[in-house]
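Hey, I was hoping to borrow your eyes for a little while. There's a protein on my desk that I can't quite get my head around. The fold is given in discrete form, as structure tokens running alongside the sequence. I'd be grateful if you could look everything over and explain what you see. Here's the protein in full, and shout if anything looks odd to you:
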Amino acid sequence: MLFDDLEDIFSGGSPKAKFFDIVYNANRNLVEAELEKMVERICVLEAMLEEKMGEEEIEEEVRKRSYLPSEELDNCKNSKFIELTANILTQNE
């Protein structure tokens, strides 16, 4: 699995734990900007989905996919935490 050795990469923590360590210590404006970009992206993706599906269908799919533990979902979440952490760190110099 891609994320088997994440604890070694992040010296004692998961991507989620490291993200929150960074968020609490990084420049607040940078963190807010990155979170705002993420929320904007979610809004755009939801609008795109709503054009293809109804809102109720989207909610049903989210419920179906989020209740089941999934390696794919875990990998995606880890990737997003890593991406956000990297974006914040590269700007927080």
Summary: The CA atoms of residues 27 and 93 lie 9 Å apart. Residues 27-91 form one domain. DSSP finds five helices and no strands in the chain. Confidence is low (pLDDT under 50) at residues 1-9.
